[in-house]
Amino acid sequence: MPETIIENIDLGLLKEKARQLRLDILEMTTLAGSGHPSSSFSAVEILTALYFGDILRFRPDDPWWPARDRFIMSKGHAAPLLYAVLAHAGYFNREQLWRLRQLDSPVQGHPIQGVLPGVEATTGSLGQGLSLGIGHVLGGRLNGLDYRVYVLLGDGECEAGQIWEAAMAAAHFKADRLTAILDYNKYQETGPISREMALEPLVAKWQSFGWQVTEVDGHDIAALIPALRAAQSTTGKPSILIAHTIKGKGVSFVEADFTFHGRALKPDQAIRAREEILCQ
Ligand SMILES: Cc1ncc(C[n+]2csc(CCOP(=O)(O)OP(=O)(O)O)c2C)c(N)n1
Ligand SMILES: [Mg+2]
Question: What's the 157 CA to ligand 1 centre distance in angstroms?
Answer without folding.
Answer: 6
